[in-house]
Design brief:
Layout: H1 2-26, E1 48-49, E2 55-56, E3 66-71, H2 77-93, E4 100-104, H3 116-126, E5 132-134, H4 141-144, E6 148-149, E7 151-158, E8 161-168, H5 184-194, E9 208-209
Parallel strand pairs: 3-4, 4-5
Antiparallel strand pairs: 1-2, 3-7, 6-9, 7-8
Length: 217
């Protein structure tokens, strides 16, 4: 009986060791998708190349009251569906102090359609009025915690700091702008302009996953 008990303990120990080995191998070696910003956090500035080949940072907008930072791209069907609405946001709010800053977070090696040359062509053909930046080293989108295209982060400038006020989707119907009943981004920016409380500070971003070759397959 004693021998059977010892054998059972030995088998159990070997089984647990095997599970631990499998588990350790399944973990990614690099965490490239940290939690990112939460509402109320200060967003760090960045410097990324624009479609005009100039570097752009938030500091380039000293008179801005805030920003509509938009992680988007060329190829994603959700980004395409929201493209005109993103353009409309800049047309409506840039002059009121809240310009759109669009950032393409995808690795062009994985998605050639999202490379700088294609970004330039798209922006020119559509007449973008906002910067369209490439997160070439893919170190800005993880800082924000962006996971989708599109993914919106509204920043409000307070005492020289860019404070996160809203994170999520543009509205509640990506497929058809005529069927939208809740305009999350517009409501949030309108509240900031009016100096009132933002009723809904976060929603679930709906879109394509960000393409990064460092992610665990």
């Amino acid at each position: 009986m004693k021998n059977i008990t010892l054998l059972f303990i030995a088998i159990t120990a070997l089984t647990l060791s095997a599970f631990k080995l499998v588990d350790s191998k399944s973990k990614p070696t690099e965490d490239i998708a940290p939690k990112g910003y939460a509402i109320g956090d200060e967003a760090s500035d960045f410097s990324l190349k624009n479609i005009d080949d100039k570097m752009v940072s938030l500091a380039n907008y000293p008179n801005a009251k805030g920003f509509i930072v938009t992680f988007t791209c060329n190829h994603c069907p959700y980004a395409v569906a929201y493209e005109q609405r993103i353009m409309n946001l800049d047309a409506k709010y840039a002059s009121l102090g809240y310009p759109v800053i669009a950032i393409s977070p995808n690795d062009p090696a994985l998605v050639p359609e999202d490379g700088m040359d294609e970004m330039k062509k798209l922006a020119s053909s559509k007449g973008y009025t906002f910067p369209y930046l490439l997160d070439e080293k893919q170190n800005v989108y993880p800082l924000f915690g962006a996971t989708k295209t599109p993914h919106i982060f509204i920043l409000h400038r307070e005492n020289g700091k860019n404070i996160v006020k809203y994170i999520g989707a543009i509205d509640n119907n990506y497929a058809n702008p005529d069927d939208v009943t809740e305009r999350y981004v517009e409501d949030a920016v309108d509240a900031l302009i009016a100096g009132t409380e933002i009723k809904l500070t976060s929603t679930k971003a709906i879109g394509c996953s960000i393409k990064d070759s460092r992610k665990k397959k």
